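Human: If only I could read backbone structure tokens as easily as an amino acid sequence. Take your time, and here it is.
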Amino acid sequence: MGFERMDAPETSTQKRSLPTIIDVAAQAGVSPATVDRVLNRRSSVRPATAQRVIAAAEALGYLGADADFAASTQKPLRILFLLPAGQNRFLTLLARTILAAKSHFEALALRPTLETIDSFRPDLLAQRLRQATREVDGVVFMALEHPLVRDAVDHLAHHGIPVVTIISDIVGSGRAAYVGLDNRSVGRTVGYVMGRFIGQRPAKVAMIAGSLSYRAHEEREMGFMHLFQEMFPQTEVLGVREGYDNPERNYCQTRMVLARHGDLAGIYNIGGAPEGVGKALKEARKEHEIVLIGHGLTPEARALLLDGTMDAVITQNPDLTLMQCTSVFLNIRAGRAAQEGLTPMRSEIIFRENLP
């Protein structure tokens, strides 16, 4: 149910008796266009801003009988956010965003719970997903590509529990929606940028993934390889290594590839923990010779960009990720298609010169 309404011209008897969208905007300290986007879910708005708009609209009585945003009139949906445990700092930022948005969730009649799990263990992940059937009304998690996990997702869907996958999807399952990037396109983008950095000369480039059990990492690898085959065939793409988003593992993997390939020209860090790669490059005194591109604008990635060790970062906004997950559950509760009104997630390329 939307919140489209026309504010009728004021009469002498009706003057200021009904609040307008301008009143809501003034109360929330935002523009009328922002109020329109929040109440009609036309595009994503930062959680803190959306919370102010909803609170202002409720306080002024603007929502009236259509207040499906009002937590007091609905039983809160219990949403489990199940994120991978470990040292991936982007996921840490996402977890903090979820925790910081508690009041935003409450205003939307959503009750989030955040848990972490060793997601490299498909048996443990599948077991926790199945257990959630009796505990929650929806699940958000970073999917691991495995039959046990797919079966657990289908089990939840069969019992009416919508599942949203984030960052990495699991195809052929009953999940309700995927909120994340087109990872094959992302891999091609990294390949294009790295190829342009290196130029038209014979060279070698390496890849370090978190785990190819993540479809996102596998698709990034495929896109990266295919771009080089199409546009830079003189460049040899070495086989992918797995670092499990662990700085020490990434450090060791980088040390090994440097020792075996003295003519290495580039490294694509497909997963997290770029600091491990950066440490190995600095020790070899090749931090300004080898092109390094990775994912997630974490504090570690920012520092590597600033000192020139890292050349580019592909990132997505954790606030937008959370907003889109929220929109999915609001759509489902209102009887709309899960992804109605959602726009595809866009990646952003960050260099040292355009650091936000």
Remarks:
- The longest strand covers residues 77-84.
- DSSP finds 13 helices and twelve strands in the chain.
- Confidence is low (pLDDT under 50) at residues 1-16.
- The chain has three domains: 21-66, 74-180+317-347, 183-315.
